[in-house]
Amino acid sequence: MAKNSKVLRKKYLSRPPVEPMRLRPGMSVEDLVDVYRRAGAFNGGRLAEGCDLFGRMIDSDATIALTVTGAMAPAGMGGAIQAMIEAGFVDLVIATGANLYHDLHFALKLPVVQGHFHVDDKELYQAGIERIYDVFITEDSLLDTDAFVREALEKAPKHLRGRISTPQLHHYLGQLVNQQAPLPEKSWVATAAKYDVPIFTSSPGDSSIGMNVAAMKLRGGETTVDPDLDVLQSTAIVYDAKVNGVVILGGGSPKNFYLQTQPTLWQILDLNRGGHEYVLQISTDSPQWGGLSGATPSEAISWGKVQANMMKNHVVVYSDTTIAAPVVFSYALATRKKRKPKRLYKRLPDMYETLRRAHEKKHPGSDALPEMRDSGKAKTMGPGRALPRR
Fold it and tell me: Do the Cβ atoms of 378 and 389 come closer than 8 Å?
């Protein structure tokens, strides 16, 4: 065998051998993940790598974001998200508005029922039942949830009647759920409010919550969701953190909304952080079809979204989220101690001000991150706080 061939064999055969999966009665989630780890093949292997990666995120005290797409709330995944918030393993969330809206059904004690995909949808329509694949939701559940959101907006306190960010809106809704709903313990939006975990929605008009906010304008409503505030607040969180990590469930707009915070810093604000340190994505999309919502973690390196020098901390698990995420989360609960909540929501005004000052220092005398005004009056960007003045 040629010398060069021996070097190559040593290079490529240096990893552990594949071990047959030995299953036994009474296995714990730790045992199961170890079986995947020892086999190391295909997405069982990636799932074990994902579990280990999430553990390293937690151990590093990273500021951990969770992005959520797909019908995760109707599928019951809200409880898994609650567990991560309560353990201090998730510090901020970026989700589609639909996931927040459907989460409210559970707290309001409105029917979300196990159904089946092999049904006559015309009959469901006649019965006033909406279908999300194999989950059934009644029309009354939607109408009652709409009423809850509109009543919340009608009674919104003064600081929520101008231009606000989506974390402000969702924190307020979560507080109301905790105060008024019959089953607040079933809502992860309520849990996020309790632990001061900010919840962003990257497309605030693309859900029933957004539809109700818009409808209130016809009734003289003064609450306006400002996506610019969301961009700046999410970027301020990333700029403030010593280490940044993300768990991406699915992909979609929430994924890019989080990852774009790094190009916002280096490309737009001239405050280069070098990219996110940790990225774990669970998805069924394939990159060759333009899937994965824009980029694999390695592709994201070319955009400055992800750090190039930490490749072992970038994992994509190709799997149904409802299968893989509970394993990853359960493994974290079994192997890591709870962390003290970072309570980022309360710190949003201060983090915004830090970002503004850093950008202004780079560009003195410019119009960098000016005060945002509406009809000549400063509006709040955090609980009871006015936007910082230049």
Answer: yes
**Total domain count, the chain:** 1
- Mean pLDDT for the stretch of residues 47-51: 97
Q: Which two tokens stand for residue 359?
A: 């950008």
Residue 19 inside a domain? The answer is no
Residues 6+ apart with CB under 8 A from 147: none
Q: What is the CATH number of the domain that holds 350?
A: 3.40.910.10
Q: Which residues, in sequence order, are CB contacts of 390 under 8 Å at separation 6+?
A: 356, 360, 369, 370, 371
Q: Kind and range of the H or E element at 263? A: helix 261-263
Owning domain of residue 159: 29-363
Sign for the pseudo-dihedral over CA of 223, 226, 232, 237: positive
Residue 44's CB: how many other CB atoms inside 10 A? 19
DSSP β-bridge partners for residue 373: 378
What does the alpha-carbon distance between residue 84 and residue 65 come to, in Å, rounded to a whole number? 11
The alpha carbon of residue 136 and the mean position of all alpha carbons in its chain are separated, in whole angstroms, by: 24
- Give the pLDDT band of residue 285 (cuts 50, 70, 90): confident
Which of 125-160 are b and which e, b meaning 16 or more Cβ less than 10 Å from the residue's Cβ? eeeebbbbeebbbbeebbeebbebbbebbeebeebb
* Residue in the block written with tokens 């409010």: 193
Angle at 250 between CA 246 and CA 251, to 5 degrees: 75
pLDDT of residue 372: 43
In a domain, 379, yes or no: no
**Separation CA 265–CA 205 (nearest Å):** 25
Helix H or strand E segment including 56:
helix 42-59
Q: Is residue 20 part of a domain?
A: no
Q: Is residue 381 predicted with pLDDT exceeding 60?
A: no
Residue 150 lies in a domain: yes
Both tokens of 42, joined, read: 């295909």
Q: Are 94 and 165 in contact (CB under 8 A)?
A: no
CB burial string 310-338: b at 16+ within 10 A, e below: beebbbbbbbebbebbbbbbbbbbebbee
Give the residue numbers marked as catalytic.
305
